[in-house]
Amino acid sequence: MLTVGNLRDVSVKPSAKRQMTNSILHVSGDFPDPIEPFKTPVIKSLLELTAQAFDHRVVSINRTTPSPSKLASHLFGSVGASDIAQNEQLFKFGTALEYIAPSRGIFHRTMLERLGEHLANLINAQEVPFELLVGHKLTIEGIAVAKAAKLTGLPYALTIQGNTDRRILKARPDLRGHFRSIYLNAKTVCSFTPIAKNAIEEMLGKRTDDIALIPCPTELDTIISPKVSRGDIISVFHLKNYAVKNLTNLAAAATRLTGEEGKRRITILGGGNAKDLANCEAIAKQAGQIRFGGPVAREEMQEQMNKACALVLPSRAESFGLVFVEALFAGLPIIYPKGTAIDGYFDGLQFAQGVDANSPGAIAEAIGRAVREEETMKEALCEWQGSSEAEMFTRAAIAEKYQAALYSALDKQPKSVL
Known about the structure:
single chain
């Protein structure tokens, strides 16, 4: 079940004898909370999918930049661990808080270990003890969770999130040894994507047990058979994210299309304010095929996808890219960025084209192929939809696999999820 519990601050004390309750504390900076409600719901969905097997509770963290004087008091003064956190609020899933830390990774390990001390205070204050801690990024939450685990004697597990973990690992070679220790000493490590799994293993080595590969769940996992529509090419993103979603190169690709491919409309679905729209229209002004279709209600998205020819989203960075899986379930071929997002899940499949996001020519070539080969791509996609490869992206399969990973970390045997 998901419960709030009694997450309050007291001084660290030795852990009491722990009862076996399947009680897990998740620490995440990507969990919707009262401080920042519009975060991605992926971690929340994983917890809800396995709530019948575990007593999940959450500390949702939000970084805030301190003043120089306040930072100095933390680094050189006599403040306690509790002073690292502020604006703590109970909410449905646990506790939301802000922790102070400078931007640009300054004192990165120091401040997160202080947060770990605060977490240990919260953990030891519980009337019903936790059995496992989970940090939902190696290079941020993992530092805090590993420190809390050391202070409380609890085991911990990790989730690898590709963009952030790969970026910080590359940017902080001075912390590589510490990250390796956190990674290797975790009871279980999960990764959303093959590309992130491979990158972590290349930088930090392979574990004696394998990293569990668990896709992100989506509620839009109803299978809709593809149909040859000769419809629009579509892209789906909030307009404020036009830079990371690579609208510039998509527009440049559109200007390279000729013939029938050049006549096909490219519709971008997603909301945004007037400034967002103006920025996007300025970028796309040379590409006459591009239009902005506005937001689409979540419950209507699969129907809109099913009417289209293909989805193109050559993002510069994606931790997973749920929209690609949602498109495939809706019967829509996809064009995705190589080296990020879902890369590695669909190698060699006709209906899933990986492209160099930095190459307008490659993007244009993939769009042209999607238009020309719509019928055969959708035939191949229809066959895939009935396969075990597609089943692994369903909520039931993801729940089963995530539950097994958590039971492994607890040294217990898994039970049926659904």
